[in-house]
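seq:
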Amino acid sequence: GWEVLSGAMAALGAYRCIECNGEAAELYRDYRRGVLRISICKSCQKPVDKYIEYDPVIILINAVLCKAQAYRHILFNTKINIHGKLCIFCLLCEAYIRWLQLQDSSQNTDPDDLIRYAKEWDFYRMFGIASLEQTSFFIGICITLWWMTPEMLKRKSDFILLLKALLLSTYGKLLLIPAVIWEHDYTPVCLAFIKVFVLISNSQAIRVTLNLNRILPWFAIFFGLILENGVVCLFQKMGWDV
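struct:
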């Protein structure tokens, strides 16, 4: 149960203060009979994690607002293993948007046209392209951060935590589906805003994970975008619609 998990994480010193990012032995102390006392951080003298008392909806709202405290709570003080499934679902959303745009550019209303059914394979192609672009984006970020702050990424676990943070911070791509369902003249503007929101989330995830300033994450994202756009240019030279 939660008590066993808490004891194991406390033994590993895995908890973090959401305010100062300092290590903590425990998030709270259970005095039984429903009496809990939130632990106080020894460094900043503030509650280690106030979000353990909050409703998940409030935590989600704070994460959407890109608050560093909410990101630390999710990344360090909870046991969330949905980053893989979330990544696949976000890529499916992005592939669906690209597939729709491809169909709009080559509409064919003949129900007997077998080519129209064959175009379903375009969706899988778009999924593969979106996966390669995101992979190149993450690789660009990791290489840049490893080059600029090698002391932050010494172990394999550091890279895994960074990758997990990046995958979780792409949740903004889920907004692609509502943007298409409620189609209107400003859909391209909405897609651009979603892209910016995802990049801001990525920046905050990098900053929280490695405890960096605000400039270095954006520098890494910039190089990640360069590598991603390089992959896009490569696909375009091959004659593929992306």
